[in-house]
Write the structure tokens for this entry.
Amino acid sequence: MAAEARTRRTEAIHPVHAVLLAGSLPLFLGTLLSDWAYGSTYEVQWANFASWLLVGALLFSGLALLWSFIELLRADRRGRRNVMGFLLLLATWVVGFINALVHAKDGWAVMPEAPILSIIVAALVIGAIWFAFSGSRSGETQ
Amino acid sequence: MNRIKLSSAVAAVGLLAACGGDPDPSQYGPNPELPAQQRGLLPSMAVASPAGWGDQRPTVPQGYTITAIATDLKVPRQALILPNGDILIAEGKGGKDAPALRPKDFIAGYVMEQGSSTTEGGDRLTLLRDADGDGRYEGRAVFAENLNAPYGLALSGNALYVANQDALVRFDYQPGQIRASGPPVTVTSLPAEINHHWTKALAVSPDGRRLYVGIGSNSNVGERGMAVEENRAMIWEVDAATGFHRPFATGLRNPTALAVQPGIGQLWAVVNERDELGPNLVPDYLTSVRQGAFYGWPYAYWGQNEDPRVRPQDPQKVAATIRPDYSLGSHHAPLGLAFSVPAMGANFAEGVFIGEHGSWNRNTPVGYRVVFVPFRNGRPAGAPIEFATGFLGEDAARGRPVGVAVDPRGALIIVDDLSNTVWRVAPVRPQAAAAPASVQ
């Protein structure tokens, strides 16, 4: 029984990792919505919001990425299965960083790249979260 | 050159097309070539890290000497020659209230700080005196203090006007005075919210009744919203007696120095144009200022070239934009303007001297020098001539020119806000009028 409990603990996603990973989703989504709001109103404050939400999203997803990377290095069974989740998160972060550089442009110069990249990066992070959390669920059933 | 590490890193992975060589294309005169707009993922940035002058001096033309007449000032910006030959220097550092609004503002602020003096601004006027006329300014006094980032200076009769970053003030001035007799009187307050471009340039009409104040924009190209651009990016005409004011000309992004043309009283300005459209856009310029004219910012540049970064657009404003007179080159950052006098020597008798603070928004630095733009029949005629160079060394900036002032006895005063020095460039005097052969 003790052995089984320990296995379950290592295979479930760590709560801190879960917060970092899932917490980046509303920030990426907020970036996308703010981009949309700027595009439809020309109100520059929305562009400022987008820039800061994106910084927050990169911080959360960056820490989550670091966590996943360390898990991969430790190469336990759960980590190996989560290569896909790690790669998606890596892609999220790289595209998100490029998006941050785009968001540093002045005024309308961010258009149309900013919302396009925000859509891509939101889709990528949803994928990364899906793999990470479904991985932990299947781990429980083993 | 202290390139930004982030820039090198990103360039290394091949994301940047705009990076690389961008030699100065000699974009001078009335019809500059305007390349297509470009902006990579990162704006091009390079600032030269400061280094002291040591034994070095700026390079000046043959037949001229340069000496440092004051050092260890507290961020000197502009100079005014008083009728008795004394020199007033405005010292200060403004714009501290401009909040960093975006993540980028922190990075850009850090970059620009690398190229500035770490000295605290003096918020004062220093008076320099050469009592015996030997070109050495042995006398030095604090004329006034507790000002708020003073910049523009002008004298008319007994009225000494100082443009602080938030107000135009007036001191009573008597010839020979070395200390203000009391606190100044406020003529009018000036737009000071945010103060992204905080410097307030100043000139006075020949009759002393009207003052002209240059007020810079509150953003690069309207990215803080147009609400904060009320009364910005324009030149005010101020009634000296009442302080009443009205816009004299508008759409001038950052009019950093104003001067009235001797004889005809025409107002001229140097203007710093916008960034992040490429290393060779948009040209900074020298222009005679037409009353009521609109010079484009933020909707258009150099005539009717629309800036796509501004929303909502304003096609009427674009159509109303007039072209300035004379391009000084993109990102040169002219901050000083003074009309010459014949006593400066035959090659520099008619024209203007311009102090170029130097670029930060391109990979190959430009500016960092004082140029002379020759005039004929009261208009610019010909390419700029380098008058003082060597401010930018191989790998570091020794100084950055700001204000320039012409001493009618035949000397150019250059204010350097990086090395906190005031320089004086004068023709080498012949021993006697009958022995011109002794010159060089």
Residues 103-113 of chain B form the longest helix (11 residues). The radius of gyration of chain B is 21 Å.
